[in-house]
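Table S2 (text version). Query chain:
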Amino acid sequence: MKQYDYIFTGAGLSALMTVYKMVVSGKFQNKRILLLDENAKQTNDRTWCFWAEASSIWEPSISKKWNSALFANADFQKNLELYPYLYNKVQGLDFYNQVLDLIAKQKNIDFVQEKVLEIEESETIILVKSETQSFSCSRLLNSIYNPNGVNRQSKYPLLQQHFVGWFIQTETPVFNPEQATFMDFSVAQKGNTRFMYVLPVSETEALLEYTLFSKELLSKQEYETEIENYIQKLGISQYQIIEKETGNIPMTCYPFWKHNTQNVINIGTAGGWTKASTGYTFKNSDKKSTELLSFLETQTDFRKFHKKTKFWFYDLLLLDILDQKNETGAAIFSALFQKGNTQLIFKFLDEETSFWQDLQVIWKCPKGLFIKALLGRLFRF
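Corresponding C-alpha coordinate output:
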Protein backbone atom coordinates (compact mmCIF):
# COMPACT_ATOMS: atom_id res chain seq x y z
CA MET A 1 0.00 0.00 0.00
CA LYS A 2 1.40 3.38 -1.02
CA GLN A 3 1.48 6.11 1.63
CA TYR A 4 0.92 9.78 0.76
CA ASP A 5 0.78 13.04 2.67
CA TYR A 6 -2.15 14.29 0.57
CA ILE A 7 -4.63 12.36 -1.55
CA PHE A 8 -7.06 14.14 -3.87
CA THR A 9 -10.07 11.93 -4.59
CA GLY A 10 -11.35 13.35 -7.86
CA ALA A 11 -9.24 15.47 -10.20
CA GLY A 12 -11.78 18.11 -11.11
CA LEU A 13 -11.31 21.85 -11.39
CA SER A 14 -10.81 22.52 -7.68
CA ALA A 15 -8.36 19.67 -7.15
CA LEU A 16 -6.27 20.54 -10.21
CA MET A 17 -6.18 24.22 -9.26
CA THR A 18 -5.05 23.39 -5.74
CA VAL A 19 -2.32 20.96 -6.78
CA TYR A 20 -1.09 23.36 -9.45
CA LYS A 21 -0.74 26.13 -6.87
CA MET A 22 0.97 23.73 -4.46
CA VAL A 23 3.63 23.11 -7.12
CA VAL A 24 4.00 26.78 -8.06
CA SER A 25 4.38 27.79 -4.41
CA GLY A 26 7.41 25.52 -4.01
CA LYS A 27 6.37 24.79 -0.41
CA PHE A 28 5.16 21.20 -0.88
CA GLN A 29 8.12 19.63 -2.67
CA ASN A 30 8.76 17.29 0.26
CA LYS A 31 5.13 16.09 0.37
CA ARG A 32 3.89 13.00 -1.45
CA ILE A 33 0.69 13.85 -3.36
CA LEU A 34 -1.74 11.56 -5.20
CA LEU A 35 -4.47 12.55 -7.67
CA LEU A 36 -7.00 9.76 -8.13
CA ASP A 37 -9.63 9.98 -10.88
CA GLU A 38 -11.13 7.58 -13.41
CA ASN A 39 -11.03 10.31 -16.09
CA ALA A 40 -7.65 10.91 -17.75
CA LYS A 41 -8.58 14.56 -18.51
CA GLN A 42 -7.59 14.25 -22.16
CA THR A 43 -10.78 15.50 -23.83
CA ASN A 44 -12.34 18.93 -24.29
CA ASP A 45 -15.34 18.08 -22.11
CA ARG A 46 -16.35 21.51 -20.81
CA THR A 47 -15.99 25.27 -21.07
CA TRP A 48 -15.46 27.68 -18.19
CA CYS A 49 -15.78 31.45 -18.26
CA PHE A 50 -14.87 34.13 -15.76
CA TRP A 51 -14.43 37.88 -15.65
CA ALA A 52 -11.25 39.49 -14.37
CA GLU A 53 -9.52 42.85 -14.30
CA ALA A 54 -5.97 41.53 -14.59
CA SER A 55 -4.16 38.56 -16.02
CA SER A 56 -3.77 35.44 -13.87
CA ILE A 57 -1.80 32.22 -13.70
CA TRP A 58 -4.45 30.69 -15.98
CA GLU A 59 -3.52 32.92 -18.90
CA PRO A 60 -2.08 29.98 -20.93
CA SER A 61 -5.52 28.30 -20.79
CA ILE A 62 -7.54 31.31 -21.96
CA SER A 63 -8.52 30.95 -25.61
CA LYS A 64 -10.69 34.05 -26.02
CA LYS A 65 -11.43 37.35 -24.27
CA TRP A 66 -14.30 39.81 -24.68
CA ASN A 67 -14.58 43.39 -23.44
CA SER A 68 -18.27 43.64 -24.31
CA ALA A 69 -21.32 41.48 -23.60
CA LEU A 70 -25.00 41.45 -24.50
CA PHE A 71 -27.92 41.01 -22.12
CA ALA A 72 -31.35 40.50 -23.64
CA ASN A 73 -34.91 39.41 -22.96
CA ALA A 74 -38.11 39.48 -24.97
CA ASP A 75 -38.49 43.27 -24.47
CA PHE A 76 -35.02 44.83 -24.56
CA GLN A 77 -31.33 44.40 -25.32
CA LYS A 78 -28.46 46.05 -23.47
CA ASN A 79 -24.82 46.20 -24.48
CA LEU A 80 -22.68 45.72 -21.38
CA GLU A 81 -19.34 47.49 -21.53
CA LEU A 82 -17.21 45.41 -19.20
CA TYR A 83 -14.16 47.64 -18.65
CA PRO A 84 -12.10 47.28 -16.48
CA TYR A 85 -13.15 43.64 -16.67
CA LEU A 86 -12.56 41.17 -19.49
CA TYR A 87 -14.71 38.09 -19.96
CA ASN A 88 -12.41 35.08 -20.36
CA LYS A 89 -13.09 31.70 -21.95
CA VAL A 90 -11.22 28.57 -20.86
CA GLN A 91 -11.65 25.29 -22.70
CA GLY A 92 -11.37 22.20 -20.56
CA LEU A 93 -8.56 20.56 -22.50
CA ASP A 94 -6.41 23.69 -22.45
CA PHE A 95 -6.76 23.89 -18.66
CA TYR A 96 -6.05 20.18 -18.18
CA ASN A 97 -2.93 20.43 -20.36
CA GLN A 98 -1.60 23.45 -18.47
CA VAL A 99 -1.99 21.73 -15.10
CA LEU A 100 -1.08 18.16 -16.02
CA ASP A 101 2.01 19.18 -18.00
CA LEU A 102 3.39 20.81 -14.86
CA ILE A 103 2.32 17.96 -12.58
CA ALA A 104 3.97 15.37 -14.85
CA LYS A 105 7.35 17.00 -14.15
CA GLN A 106 7.02 16.61 -10.37
CA LYS A 107 8.61 13.56 -8.78
CA ASN A 108 6.49 13.87 -5.65
CA ILE A 109 3.08 13.78 -7.44
CA ASP A 110 1.32 10.74 -8.91
CA PHE A 111 -1.81 10.70 -11.09
CA VAL A 112 -3.62 7.34 -11.02
CA GLN A 113 -6.47 6.85 -13.47
CA GLU A 114 -8.83 4.68 -11.44
CA LYS A 115 -12.27 5.05 -9.91
CA VAL A 116 -12.49 5.72 -6.19
CA LEU A 117 -14.56 2.99 -4.57
CA GLU A 118 -14.26 3.64 -0.85
CA ILE A 119 -12.82 6.06 1.69
CA GLU A 120 -12.26 4.93 5.28
CA GLU A 121 -11.15 7.35 7.96
CA SER A 122 -9.82 6.44 11.39
CA GLU A 123 -8.14 8.55 14.06
CA THR A 124 -4.66 7.89 12.71
CA ILE A 125 -4.96 7.18 8.98
CA ILE A 126 -7.21 7.51 5.94
CA LEU A 127 -7.56 4.58 3.53
CA VAL A 128 -8.66 5.02 -0.07
CA LYS A 129 -9.61 2.03 -2.21
CA SER A 130 -9.72 2.15 -6.00
CA GLU A 131 -10.58 -0.58 -8.49
CA THR A 132 -7.24 -2.40 -8.16
CA GLN A 133 -5.26 -0.66 -5.41
CA SER A 134 -5.37 0.79 -1.93
CA PHE A 135 -3.68 3.94 -0.72
CA SER A 136 -3.27 5.69 2.61
CA CYS A 137 -2.68 9.28 3.65
CA SER A 138 -2.77 11.62 6.59
CA ARG A 139 -4.91 14.26 4.84
CA LEU A 140 -7.53 13.85 2.14
CA LEU A 141 -9.15 16.40 -0.17
CA ASN A 142 -12.33 15.10 -1.78
CA SER A 143 -14.04 16.63 -4.81
CA ILE A 144 -16.37 13.72 -5.64
CA TYR A 145 -19.87 15.14 -5.28
CA ASN A 146 -22.26 13.17 -3.08
CA PRO A 147 -25.87 14.40 -3.45
CA ASN A 148 -27.28 12.31 -0.60
CA GLY A 149 -26.97 14.95 2.10
CA VAL A 150 -28.63 17.75 0.16
CA ASN A 151 -31.29 15.44 -1.26
CA ARG A 152 -32.36 14.24 2.19
CA GLN A 153 -33.19 17.68 3.54
CA SER A 154 -35.58 20.52 2.68
CA LYS A 155 -34.14 23.47 4.60
CA TYR A 156 -31.89 24.53 1.72
CA PRO A 157 -33.41 24.39 -1.79
CA LEU A 158 -31.58 22.57 -4.57
CA LEU A 159 -31.80 23.75 -8.16
CA GLN A 160 -29.77 22.62 -11.14
CA GLN A 161 -27.96 24.72 -13.70
CA HIS A 162 -28.24 22.34 -16.61
CA PHE A 163 -27.34 22.95 -20.22
CA VAL A 164 -26.46 21.56 -23.62
CA GLY A 165 -24.03 23.44 -25.83
CA TRP A 166 -23.18 23.25 -29.51
CA PHE A 167 -20.02 24.70 -30.97
CA ILE A 168 -21.03 25.47 -34.55
CA GLN A 169 -19.38 26.78 -37.69
CA THR A 170 -21.49 28.69 -40.21
CA GLU A 171 -20.94 29.09 -43.94
CA THR A 172 -21.41 32.87 -43.85
CA PRO A 173 -20.42 35.52 -41.25
CA VAL A 174 -23.06 35.80 -38.52
CA PHE A 175 -21.47 36.47 -35.15
CA ASN A 176 -19.75 39.46 -33.60
CA PRO A 177 -16.52 37.96 -32.21
CA GLU A 178 -15.98 41.03 -30.01
CA GLN A 179 -19.15 40.53 -27.96
CA ALA A 180 -20.36 37.57 -25.91
CA THR A 181 -24.05 37.04 -25.21
CA PHE A 182 -24.12 36.84 -21.43
CA MET A 183 -27.80 35.97 -21.02
CA ASP A 184 -30.57 36.03 -23.62
CA PHE A 185 -33.94 35.45 -21.96
CA SER A 186 -35.88 36.01 -25.19
CA VAL A 187 -36.34 32.24 -25.46
CA ALA A 188 -39.64 30.78 -24.21
CA GLN A 189 -39.46 30.42 -20.41
CA LYS A 190 -42.07 27.63 -20.10
CA GLY A 191 -42.46 28.19 -16.36
CA ASN A 192 -38.70 28.11 -15.69
CA THR A 193 -35.62 30.33 -15.81
CA ARG A 194 -34.24 29.66 -19.31
CA PHE A 195 -31.72 31.55 -21.43
CA MET A 196 -29.23 31.25 -24.26
CA TYR A 197 -25.53 31.84 -23.75
CA VAL A 198 -23.39 32.58 -26.82
CA LEU A 199 -19.59 32.72 -27.00
CA PRO A 200 -18.45 33.74 -30.50
CA VAL A 201 -14.78 33.18 -31.33
CA SER A 202 -14.99 34.39 -34.93
CA GLU A 203 -17.62 35.67 -37.37
CA THR A 204 -18.46 32.08 -38.31
CA GLU A 205 -17.79 30.14 -35.07
CA ALA A 206 -19.53 30.21 -31.71
CA LEU A 207 -20.55 28.11 -28.74
CA LEU A 208 -24.31 28.31 -28.11
CA GLU A 209 -25.64 26.91 -24.84
CA TYR A 210 -29.26 26.45 -23.88
CA THR A 211 -29.29 26.84 -20.09
CA LEU A 212 -31.84 26.48 -17.31
CA PHE A 213 -31.92 27.19 -13.58
CA SER A 214 -34.59 24.74 -12.48
CA LYS A 215 -35.29 21.60 -10.46
CA GLU A 216 -35.90 19.12 -13.25
CA LEU A 217 -33.72 18.16 -16.21
CA LEU A 218 -35.07 17.98 -19.76
CA SER A 219 -34.85 15.30 -22.40
CA LYS A 220 -31.81 15.66 -24.65
CA GLN A 221 -34.09 16.40 -27.59
CA GLU A 222 -35.71 19.40 -25.89
CA TYR A 223 -32.37 21.13 -25.29
CA GLU A 224 -31.29 20.52 -28.87
CA THR A 225 -34.62 21.63 -30.33
CA GLU A 226 -34.31 24.93 -28.49
CA ILE A 227 -30.77 25.41 -29.79
CA GLU A 228 -32.00 24.72 -33.33
CA ASN A 229 -34.80 27.26 -32.86
CA TYR A 230 -32.33 29.89 -31.66
CA ILE A 231 -29.97 29.24 -34.56
CA GLN A 232 -32.89 29.71 -36.93
CA LYS A 233 -33.84 32.97 -35.16
CA LEU A 234 -30.31 34.24 -35.80
CA GLY A 235 -30.92 33.71 -39.51
CA ILE A 236 -28.47 30.82 -39.82
CA SER A 237 -29.46 28.22 -42.41
CA GLN A 238 -26.20 26.42 -43.14
CA TYR A 239 -23.95 25.32 -40.30
CA GLN A 240 -21.90 22.43 -39.00
CA ILE A 241 -21.79 21.15 -35.41
CA ILE A 242 -18.11 20.85 -34.45
CA GLU A 243 -18.48 19.82 -30.78
CA LYS A 244 -21.17 19.26 -28.18
CA GLU A 245 -21.04 19.60 -24.41
CA THR A 246 -23.47 19.00 -21.58
CA GLY A 247 -23.43 20.00 -17.95
CA ASN A 248 -25.41 19.89 -14.72
CA ILE A 249 -24.24 22.04 -11.81
CA PRO A 250 -26.03 21.89 -8.45
CA MET A 251 -27.10 25.31 -7.14
CA THR A 252 -27.60 25.20 -3.39
CA CYS A 253 -26.54 26.83 -0.13
CA TYR A 254 -26.51 23.47 1.64
CA PRO A 255 -23.60 23.52 4.17
CA PHE A 256 -21.41 20.82 2.62
CA TRP A 257 -18.52 22.00 4.81
CA LYS A 258 -20.24 20.51 7.86
CA HIS A 259 -19.17 17.10 6.54
CA ASN A 260 -15.50 18.06 6.81
CA THR A 261 -13.46 16.36 9.52
CA GLN A 262 -10.13 17.26 11.02
CA ASN A 263 -8.23 15.50 8.23
CA VAL A 264 -10.77 15.28 5.38
CA ILE A 265 -12.09 18.29 3.49
CA ASN A 266 -14.65 18.47 0.70
CA ILE A 267 -13.66 20.87 -2.08
CA GLY A 268 -15.18 22.08 -5.34
CA THR A 269 -18.86 21.38 -5.85
CA ALA A 270 -18.61 18.71 -3.15
CA GLY A 271 -17.54 21.41 -0.70
CA GLY A 272 -19.97 24.14 -1.70
CA TRP A 273 -17.40 26.07 -3.75
CA THR A 274 -19.78 26.71 -6.64
CA LYS A 275 -21.38 30.17 -6.57
CA ALA A 276 -24.88 29.09 -5.55
CA SER A 277 -26.83 31.90 -7.22
CA THR A 278 -25.16 31.65 -10.65
CA GLY A 279 -23.44 28.27 -10.91
CA TYR A 280 -20.12 29.94 -11.75
CA THR A 281 -17.28 27.67 -10.69
CA PHE A 282 -13.98 28.84 -12.18
CA LYS A 283 -13.54 32.15 -10.34
CA ASN A 284 -14.87 30.77 -7.06
CA SER A 285 -12.63 27.72 -7.23
CA ASP A 286 -9.65 29.94 -8.04
CA LYS A 287 -10.26 32.02 -4.93
CA LYS A 288 -11.04 29.06 -2.68
CA SER A 289 -8.00 27.07 -3.82
CA THR A 290 -5.76 30.03 -2.98
CA GLU A 291 -7.36 30.26 0.47
CA LEU A 292 -6.93 26.51 0.92
CA LEU A 293 -3.26 26.71 0.03
CA SER A 294 -2.67 29.30 2.75
CA PHE A 295 -4.67 27.17 5.16
CA LEU A 296 -2.55 24.08 4.43
CA GLU A 297 0.58 26.05 5.25
CA THR A 298 -0.64 27.23 8.65
CA GLN A 299 -3.57 25.11 9.90
CA THR A 300 -4.20 21.44 10.64
CA ASP A 301 -7.95 21.14 11.30
CA PHE A 302 -10.06 21.19 8.11
CA ARG A 303 -13.20 21.88 10.15
CA LYS A 304 -11.94 25.44 10.59
CA PHE A 305 -11.52 26.20 6.88
CA HIS A 306 -14.97 27.46 5.92
CA LYS A 307 -16.27 30.91 6.84
CA LYS A 308 -19.89 31.80 6.11
CA THR A 309 -20.40 35.32 4.66
CA LYS A 310 -23.26 37.69 3.89
CA PHE A 311 -23.08 36.59 0.24
CA TRP A 312 -24.08 33.07 1.25
CA PHE A 313 -27.30 34.55 2.64
CA TYR A 314 -27.93 36.67 -0.48
CA ASP A 315 -27.56 33.55 -2.63
CA LEU A 316 -29.92 31.68 -0.35
CA LEU A 317 -32.65 34.29 -0.78
CA LEU A 318 -32.42 34.10 -4.58
CA LEU A 319 -32.57 30.30 -4.50
CA ASP A 320 -35.60 30.45 -2.19
CA ILE A 321 -37.35 32.64 -4.77
CA LEU A 322 -36.43 30.45 -7.76
CA ASP A 323 -37.37 27.35 -5.80
CA GLN A 324 -40.89 28.65 -5.20
CA LYS A 325 -41.36 30.71 -8.37
CA ASN A 326 -38.91 29.42 -10.93
CA GLU A 327 -40.44 31.51 -13.70
CA THR A 328 -39.32 34.79 -12.04
CA GLY A 329 -35.63 34.38 -12.92
CA ALA A 330 -35.87 36.33 -16.17
CA ALA A 331 -37.53 39.29 -14.42
CA ILE A 332 -34.95 39.32 -11.61
CA PHE A 333 -31.88 39.21 -13.85
CA SER A 334 -33.45 41.61 -16.35
CA ALA A 335 -34.15 44.21 -13.65
CA LEU A 336 -30.63 43.80 -12.32
CA PHE A 337 -28.84 44.31 -15.64
CA GLN A 338 -31.25 46.81 -17.17
CA LYS A 339 -31.02 49.24 -14.27
CA GLY A 340 -27.74 48.30 -12.62
CA ASN A 341 -24.09 49.15 -13.12
CA THR A 342 -22.37 46.23 -14.86
CA GLN A 343 -19.03 46.66 -13.12
CA LEU A 344 -20.71 46.84 -9.71
CA ILE A 345 -22.78 43.73 -10.47
CA PHE A 346 -19.64 41.79 -11.37
CA LYS A 347 -17.91 43.01 -8.23
CA PHE A 348 -20.98 41.93 -6.22
CA LEU A 349 -20.99 38.49 -7.82
CA ASP A 350 -17.28 38.22 -7.01
CA GLU A 351 -18.26 38.86 -3.37
CA GLU A 352 -16.03 41.93 -3.12
CA THR A 353 -18.58 44.68 -2.37
CA SER A 354 -19.29 46.65 0.80
CA PHE A 355 -22.71 46.46 2.44
CA TRP A 356 -23.65 49.83 0.92
CA GLN A 357 -22.68 48.55 -2.53
CA ASP A 358 -24.65 45.37 -1.86
CA LEU A 359 -27.77 47.45 -1.31
CA GLN A 360 -27.20 49.36 -4.57
CA VAL A 361 -27.25 46.04 -6.44
CA ILE A 362 -30.03 44.28 -4.54
CA TRP A 363 -32.30 47.35 -4.65
CA LYS A 364 -32.46 47.03 -8.46
CA CYS A 365 -34.17 43.64 -8.13
CA PRO A 366 -37.96 43.17 -7.66
CA LYS A 367 -38.32 44.22 -4.01
CA GLY A 368 -41.50 42.34 -3.20
CA LEU A 369 -40.00 38.98 -4.11
CA PHE A 370 -36.93 39.49 -1.92
CA ILE A 371 -38.82 40.91 1.06
CA LYS A 372 -41.16 37.91 1.01
CA ALA A 373 -38.20 35.55 0.69
CA LEU A 374 -36.42 37.28 3.58
CA LEU A 375 -39.42 36.96 5.87
CA GLY A 376 -39.92 33.34 4.88
CA ARG A 377 -36.28 32.49 5.47
CA LEU A 378 -36.23 34.09 8.93
CA PHE A 379 -38.91 31.63 10.02
CA ARG A 380 -36.89 28.66 8.68
CA PHE A 381 -33.72 29.31 10.70
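Notes on Table S2: The chain has three domains: 2-48+92-152+254-304, 158-251, 310-378. The first strand starts at residue 2 and ends at 9.
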